[in-house]
Amino acid sequence: LPTMVPSCALLLLRLCALPSALAAAASDVLVLRDSDFDNSFVGEVSLTLLRCSLFLPLARCAHCQKFAPEYERAATRLKGTAILAKVDCSTSSKTCKRFGIKRYPTLKVFRNGKEFAIYDRSHSEEGIVHYMQKQTGPSSVVLHSKEDLDAFINHSDASVVGFFPNGSNTHLVEFQKAASTLRENYRFAHTVEPGLGLLHGLEAEGVLLFRPPRLSSIFEESVKKYTGPINTSTLRRFIKHNIFGICPHVTKENREKLKGRDLLTAYYDLDYVRDPKGSNYWRNRVLKVAVQFQSRGLSFAVANRREFERELEEDFGLDQLDGGGFPLVTIRTREGHKYSMREEFTPDGKALTRFLEDYFAGRLKRYLKSQPVPEYNKSLVQTVVAETFEEIVSDPEKDVLIQLYAPWCGHCKNLEPKYNELAEQLSGDPSIVIARMDATANDIPSGYDVDGFPTIYFVPARKKHKPVKYEVGIYLTQQSYFFGILYMP
Ligand SMILES: *[C@@H]1O[C@H](CO)[C@@H](O)[C@H](O)[C@H]1NC(C)=O
Ligand SMILES: *[C@@H]1O[C@H](CO)[C@@H](O)[C@H](O)[C@H]1NC(C)=O
Ligand SMILES: *[C@@H]1O[C@H](CO)[C@@H](O)[C@H](O)[C@H]1NC(C)=O
Ligand SMILES: *[C@@H]1O[C@H](CO)[C@@H](O)[C@H](O)[C@H]1NC(C)=O
């Protein structure tokens, strides 16, 4: 029996390769080999790119091709602050084996020569520079004066500042501990200078969270106060709860932190570097409406439309012409339900208000990415699309086996004859449905995780809320009868 097939996407990554010619030009990326890996951590922090061999032409790996120059530029910008390095796994296999490198490129962060974290964020120059700058220096910056404080909080990200009395202070120690744990995500500073907290309404010791100045508005406080007991978990909770405010600027960097909410996002030509005023013009229009609805469990955000262009198109079917130059508005719920505002955004906020009223009244039609519903077809394997998923797969009377596949996935093609054969063998039983859906062209309902193709679920009759994923070992369960046939040699 074959084991569960690995993700096709992962296999593609394994083929990533770069020609050495790219590295030959003057470069600030340090090249590390097995022989010198352990002796080369000169700086406090270094980010090491471990990359694969050179046996495939560059054209085969679009991602590596795009990434290499970004990494070079990031290295140049970080010179003197952090070191970016790379290892070629084809010639330095010992190092790559030691660090368990399985796919390329893999990025790991080393602090003082020790592995500290896996870098799994944006593979862009900006993303890497931003992250590494945050990693260097102390986890909590010491502030000595009002000028220090003003300079620290004048930043594009929020700032967390602890105010403590001078002298040995266990609370300060706890604060620093928390800062070193949470530094990957937030910016910390502290001070023992008397009177600084008072400038922001803090009378005794405590922690203040300053939202980024560019996002300050009349609709909410730009400073939040915490005076409870300090440890990593209380501080983390306080920050998480307050860091975003009513309407944060969501980017590819911070979007993960906004997951798990019902989120409305307004997309427009937001650009806080070139046009802060224009960026806040629309944000304030959103905020004005948001404050009226914020108690109802929906979160709000603004974003740069260009940054999320692909997603708007693929997930919401919105293209460049939609919105007529005004903000585009979408809602994505934590269950993955999607809505988009079809009416044009009006500066008075009335269109947005109507959209929200319809949303809360359940009057909006969900947007479903779906292939057209196929004509009735007597073939034994049913073709399911997003629009018929509910009707066919969630039919309470039927035992359904649903295969989620991708058209480009070789494993899926190999499985096809077997899958058809299974459908044929079971075709006599009207209570059984064997089905498949192209998971790249249709939305997958929540409850169905897909982490590789094909992914197969058994959805038992009358237990539709409990789809069972095919996994090695499932033969031992009640479903053995399906999978046993499916994977018979
Ligand atoms: C904040 O920083 C910007 C540059 O990043 C500077 O132009 C501005 O004057 C600073 N504002 C304050 C209040 O220090
Ligand atoms: C804190 O206390 C130390 C030693 O007791 C002293 O040298 C320092 O000036 C004090 N700092 C402030 C800001 O009062
Ligand atoms: C942190 O402080 C809170 C409140 O005092 C307490 O309930 C919690 O157990 C503490 N957590 C740790 C890890 O010390
Ligand atoms: C039925 O579907 C199968 C597989 O999708 C396809 O090969 C076949 O041509 C279809 N038949 C009709 C009559 O549409």
TrEMBL record:
Where the record annotates domain Thioredoxin, the positions are 20-158, 367-489
Name the residues that span the membrane. none
**EC top class, as a word:** isomerase
Which residues are connected by disulfide bridges in this protein? 61-64, 409-412
Annotated EC: 5.3.4.1
Tell me yes or no: is Lipoprotein among this UniProt entry's keywords. Answer: no
Query: GO biological process: any one?
Result: response to endoplasmic reticulum stress
Residues of the signal peptide = 1-23
Q: What Gene Ontology molecular-function terms does this entry list?
A: protein disulfide isomerase activity
Gene Ontology cellular-component terms for this entry are: cell surface; endoplasmic reticulum lumen
- Which SUPFAM superfamilies does the record match to this protein? Thioredoxin-like
One Pfam match, given by its short name, reads: Thioredoxin_6
Similarity annotation:
Belongs to the protein disulfide isomerase family.
What is the designated name of this protein?
Answer: protein disulfide-isomerase
Q: Which reaction does it catalyse?
A: Catalyzes the rearrangement of -S-S- bonds in proteins
Compartment(s) where it occurs, according to its Swiss-Prot or TrEMBL record: Endoplasmic reticulum lumen
What keyword terms does UniProt attach to this protein?
A: Disulfide bond, Endoplasmic reticulum, Isomerase, Redox-active center, Repeat, Signal
Has the keyword Lipid metabolism been applied to this entry?
A: no
